[in-house]
Structures are given as structure tokens and as C-alpha cells.
Amino acid sequence: MRGNLYIVSAPSGSGKTTLLGQLISKFDDLIFSVSYTTRRPRGSERDGVEYFFVGRDAFLDMVQRGDFIEWAEVYGHLYGTSREFVEENLEAGRNVILDIDVQGMKRVQEQAPDAVKVFVLPPSYEELERRLKQRRLEDDETIRMRLAIAKTEIERYRDYDYIVVNDTIEESARVLESVIRAGAARPANQEARIGEIIASFGGVDC
């Protein structure tokens, strides 16, 4: 039984990373795909945990080899998702969740049209600005740039299957959890079990 592929996108500072951390702790079969990036670690980020941190030349070599299911340049840095990691886990029946932007979502959707897409919205522009400043990771100019990009990103919300407004981490995590649990009920993910049930009725004419 092949696993489900989930895509979660959000403007920077929306609280997505915290949400995903809580979500993954709820499911044994939900695997977070760690992206590759050319940017430097921020704060307490660790290589192989939040990201795989690589040089630009090494990243571009991976692009040439076709190692990424999607990749993009964001804020002057390159980000990519390992094709091998995603495919191996899906084939093993594990659900995989991707933390990628709207550009990456479109590229993955072209290759995996059955992926479940979730967009996390901040409650307001003002709240997003407050959260970005509260992180104390960037200067005012960078924050202004992130807010401007966020405006263009949220206009793409209709491209997603579900919208989560992140008012509070606890409630938003519950909503995301319900999306994952609903995915397990999709017919394509229960073919073996459905076949057993139908066989117990002597088969069903279609």
C-alpha cells in the first residue's frame, strides 16, 4: 500500500515549522522530508534535522543529476526536495509531508497529482509582521521583503485543498491532524482491505 504525499506551504513566519513538529509527533507513519538548502543555519538549526545544509556547487550538481523532485531559489538561496527519499518512503507505505513554498508545490503536483495540499495562513498581516519581528532572526529590510512576498503567496490559496488559519498552534495542529487522518480513508489507500471485504461477500459485479 503506497503512502500519501502531503504538501504544506505558508508564508515565512506563519508558524508552520512549529505546527509540523507537533503534527509529526502524533503519527508513527508520517515522515518529514528534510529539504536541502544553500543558506546558512539559523539559531539552533541542525544539519540533517531542519535542513541538509550544502554548498551552492554541490546543490547544482544534484540538480543536474535529477536528484530533486522540486527545487527553487527563494530569498537568494536554493532549496530542494530529495526525489529518492520521497519515493522510497511512499513505496514503503509511509506518509510523507513536504514543507515547500507555492513554487515547489506546483512542481510536485505535476509529478504527483494526488498529493494533498495544505496552505497555512497567518491571522492577519499585522500578526505575521509581529511574529517575524519576534523571531529576532532578520533585519527590518529582510522582514519587509518577506511580508511583500507573503502577499503574493497568500493570493495562491485557491491552489490548495485545505486552508488552516493559524490563530493558535493547538487548534491549527488539530485541524492538520484531521487532514492526515482523513487521508488514510481514501479508497486508493485501502485497496487491499477493501478487496478482502468484497471477497467476503462473494465478490461484487462492477
Task: Describe the protein in words.
This protein is of the alpha/beta class and 206 residues long. It has one domain (5-190): 3-Layer(aba) Sandwich (Rossmann fold), CATH 3.40.50. Helices cover 43% and strands 20% of the residues. The chain contains eight helices and nine strands. The strands form two sheets. Strands 2-7-1-8-9 form a five-stranded parallel β-sheet, sandwiched between helices. A four-stranded mixed β-sheet has the order 4-3-6-5. The longest helix has 15 residues, at 140-154. 28% of the residues are buried. The mean pLDDT is 89.
Could you list some keywords that capture this structure?
single chain; 206 residues; alpha/beta; Rossmann fold; 5-stranded parallel β-sheet; 8 helices; 9 strands; globular
Which CATH class applies here?
Answer: Alpha Beta
**Which class of secondary structure composition applies to the elements?**
alpha/beta
Strand order of the largest sheet: 2-7-1-8-9
Query: Can you tell me the CATH superfamily?
Result: P-loop containing nucleotide triphosphate hydrolases
CATH architecture group name: 3-Layer(aba) Sandwich
Number of helices: 8
Largest sheet: 5 strands, parallel
- Please tell me how large the radius of gyration is: 19 Å
SSE pattern: EHEEEHEEHEHEHHEHH
> Uncertain segments of ≥5 residues (pLDDT<50)?
none
Enter the CATH topology name: Rossmann fold
Shape: globular
Q: If you average the pLDDT, what whole number results?
A: 89
Taking the alpha carbons of the first and last residues, their distance comes to 22 Å
Percentage beta strand: 15-25%
Number of domains: 1
- Overall strand count: 9
Helix content: 40-55%
